[in-house]
Design a protein that fits this description.
single chain; 162 residues; mainly alpha; 8 helices
Length: 162
């Protein structure tokens, strides 16, 4: 989307076609030798739907979404503002990766809470590193720590006088 109106070179190979702008490959597609075939990569359109989420409703590239995303799109487009939510979820794909987003969308669909925040929350929980194992040590506490909110209030009032 950001290259509209700019000069782009096309490099044709036996198995693929590469689109090059500013000396870097910006898109690569497998070749199709049949006639009248159109192939889309829906991920190329993510910047567009961030600006115009209504394109999700009838946009041909979005008919080729993976199954979990298609199910989520069907459910969200029944709601008012669902296209914006779906656009935000698809915008997470470049940052987090498609596989991680698909797993989190599956989990979100099972829970029934369809929101961007829920998908991002599940993604973050999937990325979390496990807690480290407990280390064996000979150190021991001589005094157990006590929760003393009154001491905290006393310290807080001293700080306000300073």
């Amino acid at each position: 989307c950001e290259l509209v109106g700019q000069i782009v070179s096309i490099h044709v190979y036996p198995e693929r076609i590469d689109f090059v702008a500013n000396d870097s490959v910006v898109a690569s597609h497998g070749r199709s030798f049949g006639s009248n075939h159109t192939h889309y990569d829906w991920q190329h359109y993510i910047p567009l739907i961030e600006r115009k989420p209504g394109a999700l409703r009838n946009g041909a590239p979005f008919n080729e979404l993976p199954e979990p995303l298609l199910r989520l799109r069907r459910l969200l487009l029944k709601r008012e503002g669902g296209d914006r939510i779906m656009a935000k979820i698809l915008a997470v794909v470049p940052r987090s990766g498609l596989e991680a987003v698909l797993v989190s969308v599956d989990l979100v669909l099972e829970s029934g809470n369809l929101s961007v925040e829920h998908v991002e929350n599940v993604l973050n929980r999937l990325k979390q590193t496990p807690q480290p194992e407990q280390v064996q040590t000979l150190l021991a506490l001589s005094e157990a720590p006590l929760a003393d909110p009154e001491r905290y209030d006393c310290l807080r009032s001293e700080a306000s006088h300073a």
